Task: structure prediction
Amino acid sequence: MEDRSAKYRAFYAQLICAAAKTTDPRIEQAFSTVRREPFAGPGPWSISVGGHPYVVTPDDDPAFLYQNTLLALDPARGLNIGMPGAHAYWLSGCGVREGETVIQIGAGSGYYTALLAELTGPSGRVHAYEIDEGLAALARENLKDIPHVELEDRSGIASDLPGADVIYVCAGAAQPATEWLDALRPGGRLVFPLAPEGMLGGMLMITRPDEGTVWPAKFLSRAQFIGCAGLQDADAGRRLAEAFAKGWESVQSLRRGGAPDETCWFAGEGWWLSTAAAPVPTDSIKPHADLTQA
Result:
């Protein structure tokens, strides 16, 4: 079965990178290396594509796991291992490098935590947070043999977060947590779904500059996630829906403080997104409009 799983993974990694339009060999290698079986749990499994109803696989053949689909962890709550092609695109966008320190918010059963660990390599460090006790227990068991991963079963919105080169958030929020912005090192990238519970928003990447309050920012794609506890706001969600309806590709920077001006795309409390460029723009990556489900 292991030989079959390796064959499935090699094909799956190519399929995922094609869906993500990435040619990064490190992304393909990570998806080819990490087995999905431990993170999915025993089959049969419930899978879904693009917001359609779940379909139950006929048996526990691992071939069903190696597709570009949502894989349910808890169908009743809509908790999934997110769409691999979307995550491959976002991971390519934030460019996790060997030796970097990564914070992951919303580890689930640990599948994307393991992929992040592959990308950082043993010289790096992954600090993963999962507030759901049941999922955290699964993730801890699944990740126990990766020494450079540390899992904590608590909220990832806290003042004691370690300094990080990348913060990768797998839960939708109405705003970037101040604690995430403060934990970023200069040059660090925060990638999170600006998408409150139940709303199709966008995966926003923010890069911390060496100095100043104007940070490069851009949407990588549209995105929808389970909500991040503590970062929900009904009024912000309504206003965000209106902003996305008018377009989202023009966002170029995050402003911390100051009065929003005519370039404001959306304003939160103490922060706003602008269509004006930051002094040091981010590397060019074309937004991918059809990546949504995570």
About this structure: The longest strand covers residues 184-194.
